[in-house]
Amino acid sequence: GVANAVMRELLSRLKKRGEPITMLRPFSMSFYRKFGFGTCEALDVLRITPAQLPDSKHRLGVRSYATNDFSELARVYDEARVANGRGAGALKRSEYWWRKRVLRNHPDVVVFEDARGISGYAICEVPNSPGYPDQECRVHEIVTTSADAFRGIVGYLHALGEQYRVIDFPLPRSQSISVIVDHNLVDAPLVRETIGHVHTMNMARLLDIPKALALHPFPARRDVRGELGLDVHDPLENKPHSFDVTFDSGAHAVAGSTAKERLELSTDRLAQIYFGAARAVDLLAHGFISGSHQAAEKIDDALFGLELFGGPLNHF
Description:
five-stranded mixed β-sheet, 29% helix, alpha+beta, 10 helices
């Protein structure tokens, strides 16, 4: 019961502090689900040969990392983190995190540079075993601020065919298909044209639903209009919390139950909808939530698409 008590106390302190959202990497999905956390991040981990990646002339702009490139790595990361309007999950990094967590084991790093400067990098690890000719290149992170940089780094990985037998390559689920040019999952039988596997990562919980909804960027960006109701079941409390949500240049939620079109759902499912891990209309069709189809469509219009992708080097 110690772990249960610790989690309850942590969540209580976070709520008192006014935190709208909390996130963690679970050791057990079922353990954290009973505290209201929903699985919100899944990435595709491609285990492929270099030849399965597309070549590009822009790979000529890739070079080895130099120590004086450190500030440029941090700049590119920060620019990509705030400019990526599609996704979320790239955490702010202190210099400590960079030096003691990201670069502490002296990984292999390459950068993409052209006449405009450095606009991308890749951080990789090459395990000692297996040795040549079965060496593996494990890509921990690719961050770019231009299309040329992304194509250049992927083309660089394509060109490593004589050096590595395997490329391990994590990507957001929506992006993996665009970089694959042929079937194959290394070290596994070819079953249904497999190219990798789905890796579940972070779980999240909305602690203050009105605050969390107000933070979401999409309702205002998409100019969504309308209203719906949410009746949210928290596994740590005995009664649901009811909210009326209005979309009007943002999302505004107040305690109440007057909205006609409503959804009844648990906190873990609300987190999945919030972070784009699942569509409300699909959860409704499959019986994981209940209520109005119109409300499910409206909340999807407002929220779906905020794909959570922290990447391996942001996990803790």
